Amino acid sequence: MTERIPREFIQQLLARVDIVDFIDGRVPLRKKSSNNYFACCPFHTEKSASFSVSQNKQFYYCFGCGAHGNAIDFLMQYDKLSFPEAVESLAKLTGMTIPRETLAAKKSNINPDLYELLTQVAKYYQAELRHAPLAINYLKKRGLSGNIAKDFGIGYAPPGWDHVLQTLGKSATHKQQLFEAGILIKKDEGGFYDRFRDRIMFPIHDRRGRIVGFGGRVLDKGEPKYLNSPETPIFQKGHELYGLYQALSANRELSRVLIVEGYMDVIALFQMEITYAVATLGTATSAHHLQRLFKHTPEIVFCFDGDSAGRTAAWRALLVTLPIMRDDIQIRFMFLPDNEDPDSLIRKEGKTAFEQRIQTAATLSHFFFQHIGTQTDLSTTDGRARFVKLANQHLQQLPSGIFQTMMLAELAKRARIDVTEISAPKAATRSSIKPNTARSPSSLRLAITLLVQNPELANRMTEALPSLDVRGFDLLVRLVDIIKTHAITTTGTLLEHFRDTEEDKLLSKFTHIEHMIPDTGIPLEFLGSIARLKKLANKQMIETMLSKAAQDGLSPDEKKYLHELIQEGQS
């Protein structure tokens, strides 16, 4: 979605917002220096103020947890919004309108009326529950209180084929919308009938709290036991997680998320004050589910039955996790006793004992090697060789990083071999600031640092940058070009141009490097670093031409040019 919102509009939007005033409205700031304001970080727990907001850079950075960005990033982190949602929210705040063609590009098949319609459907089901003693008794037997049922918006779809149809589908338009939202089913011979009948109804919310679908459970025997809304323009089962909206609402920070199997498990845990459980919607956990959770929590605990089926499901979840695993994330696997589910177990042993199970759940590494180990005999040489082969083919899926290195080291330890004997995964793409043919000079790092922190420095350059064969120099050239082309004046706006690119994280690191240069000396230091880079480029060209002269000789024009370069280098 980011490319559908014109960069020019985003630049204008950020120019309208003073990040200090904007953040101060949500997190009280206090001035500590001429241009910087501080507060305790809103993204992690701390006692001393390490959250810094720069007026000049229009950028924030936490020296404790590393959270950083411009006003759009703050909204994304603080209000848990997507990029388009944050842009829309900021645009409303400033009175700006996102270009019409951009709004049209956003999932044009979504009718915003569907959200309101599903809210009306949920209210209808909730009203019906008050007059359904069998449904109320069922919920009471399951141990649910009236308050928790209200908090989760639980309702009841009465028996019969057309209750919702008759109540909310009074016009052809409403019938069609109810069909699009998955509430009605079309008859082959024409007309519609209710999808959900004689079921306890669980509204499914997206992360913004909008109802996007329903899950229905039969009261007595019947198939299917659980029936979910079908895929619709506003509901994709592989994307949504039941209970995530409630968990985010109940917790400013989610230190962990517990993934369970059913609606009742989530609600029962919530009632017992474990307010961080979510459930997938009749599908296996997907990479999309996990990536969404990674935005909100550093720890995910999968909860499965302890039987063979549960362990097989856990292994599938582990395989989904491997390609997107990060060094700052912890994954655990919790296996339940026989004939227990989270609902029954927490009521039996209480919150404290249940959370103790969560805290002692198997780590990803433990479960991984345990599972692979059951397929081989580690007491034999050929068994250990097979163990390495089976494990390594999965470890190749891990992104390069500390966790991958440690997993390979653990594999080597268990197989009783040196880690160098294990075929290494594909090398990670090196950062663009690392050298091509030579070590990146300190002048280049200083120039990029000063330019990222003070984009207006680009306008002090009167000559174009030369060609220099050092990795990272092309990034400096791009920075200068972007700043001049788009008249960028702040760090926050500059980094917005690199959102979702390979350079994004790299440039963010330059925003908070302490260079200890006083403000009045920054322009001179920047131009000095550029001059040193030009000298290095000059020297590199001289070496190239001398090499050519020794091998193939130089033309008269090339000899003249070489002479000029040498004279320039001596000046």
What does this structure look like?
- It is a single chain.
- The chain is of the alpha+beta class and 571 residues long.
- Helix content is 47%, strand content 12%.
- It has 24 helices and 16 strands.
- α3 crosses α4, α12 packs across α15 and α17 (381-395) runs antiparallel to α18 (402-415).
- The longest helix is centred in the last third of the chain and has 30 residues, at 522-551.
- It is globular and about 95 Å long.
- The chain starts with 6 loop residues before the first helix and ends with a helix.
- Residues 101-108 and 425-440 have low confidence and may be disordered.
Strand content: 5-15%
Give the termini separation: 52 Å
Task: Enumerate how many helices there are, as a single number.
Answer: 24
Low-confidence residue ranges:
101-108, 425-440
Shape: globular
Average residue pLDDT: 88
Question: What structural class is derived from the secondary structure elements?
Answer: alpha+beta
Number of strands: 16
Order of strands, widest sheet: 1-2-3-4-5
C-alpha Rg (nearest Å)? 30 Å
